[in-house]
Write a structure and sequence with these properties.
Elements (H helix, E strand, L loop, with lengths): L2 E4 L13 E5 L2 E5 L3 H4 L4 H14 L2 E5 L3 E6 L5 E6 L4 E2 L10 E5 L3 E4 L3 E9 L2 E9 L4 E9 L6 E26 L10 E4 L5 E4 L1 H4 L2 E6 L7 E5 L4 E7 L6 E8 L2 E9 L4 E6 L3 E7 L10 H12 L9 H7 L11 E6 L1 E3 L5 E3 L4 H12 L3 E6 L19 H13 L3 E6 L3 E8 L2 E4 L1 H8 L23 E4 L5 H16 L4 E4 L24 H20 L4 E5 L11 E3 L15 E3 L2 H6 L5 E2 L12 H12 L5 E5 L10 H15 L3 H6 L1 E3 L8 E8 L4 E8 L1 E7 L5 E7 L5 E5 L2 E5 L4 E5 L2
Parallel strand pairs: 1-3, 23-26, 23-36, 26-27, 27-31, 31-32, 32-33, 33-35
Antiparallel strand pairs: 2-3, 4-5, 5-6, 6-7, 8-9, 8-13, 10-11, 11-12, 12-13, 13-20, 13-21, 13-22, 14-15, 14-17, 15-34, 16-19, 17-18, 18-22, 19-20, 24-25, 28-29, 28-30, 37-40, 38-39, 40-41, 41-44, 42-43
Helix pairs in contact: 9-10, 12-13
Length: 746
């Protein structure tokens, strides 16, 4: 914010202009005479200017085409980020440090406020801030902010010099504190987060925003944004090598703080420099005033993302080359069905003999094949890992069923429980105990603290039970994942998913004897990348139609995945929990034309007119995902599917077979104006937290997809139990409950 102060200039009486304004440290100093003439003369004024600068501190600026960033020369603080087209100022005045450092052995926490000396210099393309002597420690920090030709971003980096060398745990840079509200109404404020498929937290001041997202991991990408209707501010890591970091968005006083903590390896550092850019930018809506949405921030990120190594080839190119199997891009119902489950009489039985009959019943309803997500297939029960084999029901019976499914054009998928090792789990009144096996084989390879002690998680009553995790850089990790995946393929499984390594992220490992630097860095992502690549390579050598997936999307791993487990249909439950949270297809908006996700393991289906089931199936279609349905352990006759859901699932199949296929499967998701349709409330229940959340959606879900030739296709899906009429693309539509339409934009 700016203050005005009038300073008389009595020693220059001959100047005759009305006034001139000088900006110093964010203050407007109004002079009584013409500055243009003033600049020509007097040593007296130069002396005055030096005095004023010493009192107020100069403000130095860096500007891109749309963004102006200001640094206070006295403190090195970031004091202003302005959107130039709208004049919107995003930061509020407070003593917010530019960076924060954490050291181990000895423990020490420092910020830019602790520096005894600050020096700010102009660079040809930006600014350089050097701070020295933090709390008497011989630590020098250098930060730079630069512009790049043709880029909308202002990019920053940080370097830390220590004498003597120190263990740096993490470096938090930059730290932005955004003033709210951004417009007239606090309810219009929102924060965009890359949590898994993506989410928006609305009205973050009211809803107590606090998110810490690890990358790689729950953060599938590296951007965050705060926005209102008029404009927004964007912060992202432009890191192509997947170094470990934590993205933080939290309420801070009367605003929201965004920052990124860069997690280092536990090795002494004399000099460390951030090996990638941090990018800042402002943005505004593509459809005119007051139209800013999360998609505008996603579009900014895409300008950088599609130039990275993971976007070397589009999905269409990968399918054409045989790198991704074609069957994943053809209509198939991804169906979650537990082998341990209820029969028609609601008795718990072995349902392996029912699988083929279920597939045939679905074919009767939908006119197409099923990809069976075979749940509870593991030898000792669901999520008991890594002792999976022989599968439930026996290897021979299992292979016979997968063979019959293949003969009828169906496919199969199973989950591996990541690199977790179940130690104790309570199931059916008994305790599964694998502690001895872990102590014998797993302990030396487990993710550990600096003393080599394994980190233990969970309780015996949890899904995976009480467990440890195997470090991705150890030979045992390869043995577990590669060995299990190949045994699954031998059983006739078409797609193997490494579950429970969400977004390719694992906890930091500090084991002193493992073949990696202790703590953070890029070693874990590299280890998993190599392991995933080997699984695909060996699987496809045996069968070109073999597919590999992980739980939730992850940009860094796109080239070594065939698909990913999407949950865009999920609202008000993990990974979209919390007040004010609304799931959005962020990952699909940036990357859909490079990687296709499947419709998840929890998309509901019912024989009743259940609003949640209709919404979830419609969300899969509108977000470009495969059709999905989940029954897990309950008995369900596919022929009893309610007519609204049946109509929608059948429409999903038909659109993927018809002219919409190229758009919905291979197209780039693009933003489009909202439809003028009535709103509709859907009530979601989170069975884990026993909470109910009511969210509001348009009565017709809508999305747009662009092909490389420039054509744009639109899909519309009715999610209410009554017909809805509306106008779009210059024509009128009326859709019945569960009905979908596709139209190519002229």
């Amino acid at each position: 914010m700016t203050n005005r102060k009038t300073i008389p200039v009595p020693f220059i009486p001959f100047l005759r202009s009305e006034r001139a304004i000088l900006s110093i440290s964010g203050r407007k100093i109004i002079l009584d005479r013409d500055l243009a003439a003033l600049m020509i003369i007097t040593t007296a004024f130069s002396a005055w200017l030096l005095l004023a600068s010493s009192v107020f501190g100069a403000v130095l600026e860096v500007e891109s085409a749309s963004t102006r960033l200001r640094i206070d020369s006295d403190s090195g603080r970031l004091v202003s980020v302005t959107d130039k087209p709208t004049g919107r100022e995003f930061l509020f005045e407070s003593d917010v440090p530019l960076y924060e450092l954490s050291f181990a052995a000895p423990e020490l926490r420092l910020t830019s406020r602790d520096a005894e000396r600050v020096k700010v210099q102009r660079l040809p393309d930006g600014l350089r801030i050097e701070t020295t002597r933090h709390k008497q420690a011989s630590i020098t920090v250098t930060c730079t902010f630069r512009t790049q030709p043709g880029s909308p971003f202002i990019v920053g980096r940080i370097a830390v010099q220590c004498d003597p060398p120190r263990l740096i745990s993490w470096v938090r840079f930059p730290i932005l504190r955004v003033a709210l509200p951004l417009g007239d109404a606090q309810a219009d404020d929102a924060v965009l987060l890359p949590q898994c498929d993506g989410s928006v937290v609305r009205n973050p001041l009211k809803n107590g925003l606090h998110r810490l997202l690890p990358y790689p991991g729950a953060a599938s990408m590296q951007l965050m944004a705060v926005f209102g209707k008029q404009a927004g501010i964007y912060l992202a890591s432009h890191d192509a090598k997947a170094f470990t970091k934590t993205l933080t968005a939290r309420r801070a006083g009367r605003g929201v703080e965004l920052n990124v903590a860069h997690l280092l390896s536990r090795t002494p550092q004399r000099r460390w420099e951030l090996p990638y850019d941090m990018a800042l930018a402002t943005f505004r809506g593509a459809f005119g005033a007051d139209s800013t949405t999360w998609e505008d921030a996603a579009n900014l990120y895409r300008t950088w993302a599609v130039k990275q190594p993971w976007c070397r080839r589009t999905l269409a190119a990968r399918v054409k080359a045989g790198d991704v199997p074609k069957w994943l891009t053809e209509p198939s119902l991804f169906y979650s069905f537990s082998l341990r489950g209820q029969n028609r009489d609601k008795r718990m039985v072995n349902r392996l003999p029912d699988v083929v009959g279920q597939a045939e019943a679905w074919r009767e309803v939908l006119g197409g094949p099923v990809t069976f997500m075979l749940m509870a297939w593991e030898k000792r029960g669901p999520w008991v890992t890594p002792d999976y084999f022989p599968p439930f029901g026996g290897a021979e019976a299992f292979k016979r069923v997968t063979g019959e499914l293949h003969a009828r054009g169906n496919r199969t998928l199973v989950f591996l429980s990541g690199l977790k090792w179940t130690l104790h789990k309570k199931r059916d009144g008994a305790v599964i105990d694998q502690q001895a096996a872990f102590d014998r084989r797993g302990r030396p390879s487990a993710i550990s603290d600096p003393g080599g002690k394994p980190l233990i998680y969970g309780k015996p009553t949890d899904g995976v039970g009480r467990y440890a995790q195997i470090c991705a850089a150890t030979p045992l990790a390869r043995e577990i994942l590669l060995g299990s995946a190949m045994r699954c393929q031998d059983l006739g499984i078409d797609c193997v998913q490494v579950d429970q390594i969400v977004g390719g992220g694992l906890p930091l490992c500090y084991h002193p004897e493992h073949p990696h630097p202790p703590g953070g860095g890029d070693w874990c992502a590299k280890s998993l990348y190599a392991l995933f690549a080997e699984i695909r390579r060996k699987g496809k050598a045996a069968d070109p139609d073999f597919a590999f997936a992980i739980e939730e999307p992850a940009e860094f791993f796109i080239p070594v995945l065939d698909t990913y487990h999407a949950r865009e249909y999920k609202q008000a439950s993990w990974p979209r929990t919390g007040r004010g949270v609304m799931g959005v297809p962020l990952f699909a908006h940036v990357y859909h034309d490079y990687m296709l996700g499947y419709g998840g393991d929890g998309c509901q289906v019912s024989d009743k007119p259940w609003p949640v089931a209709l919404y979830q199936q419609a969300a899969n279609l509108a977000c470009g995902k495969t059709p999905g349905a989940a029954v897990w352990t309950r008995w369900f006759d596919p022929r009893s599917t309610h007519e609204f859901q049946r109509r929608l699932l059948r429409a999903h199949f038909d659109l993927w077979r018809g002219p919409a296929r190229e758009f919905l499967v291979f197209g780039q998701r693009v933003a489009s104006p909202a439809l003028n349709v009535p709103s509709h409330e859907v009530s979601f229940y989170d069975w884990r937290k026993r909470t109910r959340t009511v969210l509001e959606f348009p009565s017709v879900l809508h999305s747009a997809w662009r092909l490389p030739d420039g054509r744009i296709g639109h899909v519309f899906v009715c999610i209410v139990p009554r017909p809805v009429s509306f106008t779009a693309l210059g024509r009128s539509f009326t859709l019945r409950p569960g009905e979908a339409a596709f139209e190519i934009q002229e």
